[in-house]
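Consider this:
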Amino acid sequence: MPKSIASTAAAGSDGGADSGKPLSTAINNQPKGGAMIMKSVSIFLASGRRASAQSRDTGGKASTSRGPRPVPVKEPPSKGPRSKISRDNRRILARMDELNGKLNPKTLEMYKRRTHFFKVEVEALCKIYRKLVANASINSKALAVSNPGVIAKAGSSMDGIDRSVFRELLHSTFDIVTEETLMERIFCAWEKGYEGLPIRLEGWLMGLSTFLKGSQAEKTAFCFRVYDLNSDGFITKDEMFALLRNCLIKQPQDEDPDEGVKDLVEIALRKLDMDKDGKISFQDYQEAIAEEPLLLEAFGQCLPSDRATMSFMSTLQAQEDSN
């Protein structure tokens, strides 16, 4: 059960025992449907990094063009078009990096500055991303073959990490076991500004930076986005009710189990609604968490356990040291 208001009410002020499992155990116990996806992560972390021959060939061909490009005599390009071409080229290069799993030095340095990861960690996480996306495409094609009535989404291997892959990753690698509504909200809140869309490389790295190494302020902002179901800047009573109703263990003899949920909503408001206006703003949430950090995941688990985080990062570090 996640570290929620429900668990806090049941266990007093105790923050909850760390139920995280080693990465290898989590992977071995995963559902059959996600075996191929998680096996690729395990193989990558357990084996040495291998350069992509296809990437080298593509890079070699791209570098063979030499000599200055002809400039039109009558209408020399202005700074505006040049800037646009430059931006387009950067997007193309970034897209190639995303597909090949290998970052050019400038992009690598940029991600290092924008995240809490070292360069070698960015490179490793980029390769994991590529494997997850590639294996999701294989699974999609296999599903289409075994179920003729199911049409695989064209180009799905280029869209990023979709919901099914993401949920399996959270469950099997990061020890997050929660109900469907909260799992969907974690996916939508992962990459700010791209709610509900497949997670691309930049979003993958930025999200993991908060997820694994984020400051309390970063994690507070992430959790608030998760709990703000309609993204209007407030966590309302209705949203709290929807989030908390699955945290209770309903007893068969309970005539109206929702009454217990309503009681929890009132408890949450007393603890988190700092300005007493009947709803929780981000400022309310920030102030409450600053006073009592255990309330960070008050409405359900949306961050990895400490044990799962340590296991993932230590295994990643061991892989880096072996190269």
Q: What stands out?
A: The longest helix spans residues 119-146.
